[in-house]
Amino acid sequence: MTLGQQLLFLISALGVFNGLVISAYLLLLKKDNPPASTFLGLLVFMLSIRICKAIFLYFNPELPRIYVQIGLSGCLLIGPSLFYFIKASLANVSHTAASWKYSYLFWVLLVAIGFCFPYASHPAFWKVYIPKLIYLQWAIFVILSGWLLRRQFSLLFYARGKLTIAEVSVLSIYGGALIVHIAFVLAAIGFFKTMYISGGLFFSLLLYLNILLFVNSKKHNTIFAGPLAGEKEKYGHKKIDSQKAMVLADKLHQLIVEQQLFKNPDLKIGDLAKKINIPAHQLSQLLNDNLKCSFSTYINEFRIIQACELIANDKGIKLEEIGYEVGFNSKSTFYTAFKKHKGATPAQFKEQLSTAGPI
Question: What range(s) does the HTH araC/xylS-type domain occupy (predicted)?
Fold first, then answer.
């Protein structure tokens, strides 16, 4: 190899190494992994496998076919990992839904079945048909992921100041994944073969910078669901007096209802704490220790109550529009929270009202 190729190989290998380290941290070392963190770890791991295969195949076309098969198989899980990472981030869920697990398991089983037909003994199958199916599946999930982010993209172009740093990070990860997909597709059909490497390098750098933000900044851990990281350690040994907690809870409830603060999809715990003149960590303590719920759960209760009233009044508003009206930032977030609180989807709830009266 020339000196330039050696440098390219070294930088590419470092990108893969960084990806493996980050994915290991997210999947194995990070305590109490929320779904967004887990799926991001899977996304990084699968992309690292795919990029690793691309690097070695680029510099060694005679690479044993089993490694090519592993790299292609990893592609089958990149799309689902990206999709559920974004879905979990937007929904701010603390537990992975069973349907998500079964869906992801389906693709894992397909990967396992693929190894029953090894590349070495079925080369035509893996050269012609499998790559096309994999890239098509990957493209579908990229499109679905983009659809989940449609509100964030709208804000990006028309109201950039309203995007949170966490949302910007999710958008950048999606953008990186999109670029990698385009790079590999173009390389696969014979255009810009060097994009096989440059696409992977770009994503590795972008993802690495974002992961540092997620891991080190307590302020932005809300993208991985749950209350702000570290707050419990700050006040774990201090308790709010029950009488004071009752007064604060009543004041908080009245403020939210009167000003309908829950309708703001970008409402933060710090913003709410300022309105009742207490520190953010004390409000977090009030919610977690005294009211036994997270900030998102508490606010979503107000949103669901308002949504139920709108559904019951039936003024012709679409269910998805009701979700945005009461403060949810996506359809998936609305449906997940509604089912969690009411035990039924908005459509099922509406049907129950029409057949059995108000619930």
Answer: 250-352
- What's the pLDDT tens digit per position in 313-333? 877 788 888 888 888 888 888
Number of independent structural domains in the chain: 2
pLDDT surpassing 60 at residue 279: yes
Domain span including residue 334: 231-356
Same domain, yes or no, for 164 and 289? no
Let me know whether 127 and 209 are in one domain.
Answer: yes
- Map the chain to HEC letters: CCHHHHHHHHHHHHHHHHHHHHHHHHHHHCCCCCHHHHHHHHHHHHHHHHHHHHHHHHHCCCCCHHHHHHHHHHHHHHHHHHHHHHHHHHHCCCCCCHHHHHHHHHHHHHHHHHCCCCCCCCHHHHHHHHHHHHHHHHHHHHHHHHHHCHHHHHHHHHCHHHCCHHHHHHHHHHHHHHHHHHHHHHHHCCCCCCHHHHHHHHHHHHHHHHHHHHHHCHHHHHHHCCCCCCHHHHHCCCCCCHHHHHHHHHHHHHHHHHHCHHHCCCCCHHHHHHHCCCCHHHHHHHHHHHCCCCHHHHHHHHHHHHHHHHHHHCCCCCHHHHHHHCCCCCHHHHHHHHHHHHCCCHHHHHHHHHHHCCC
Residues 139 and 206 in one domain: yes
- Are residues 218 and 236 part of one domain? no
Q: Is the pLDDT of residue 228 over 80?
A: no
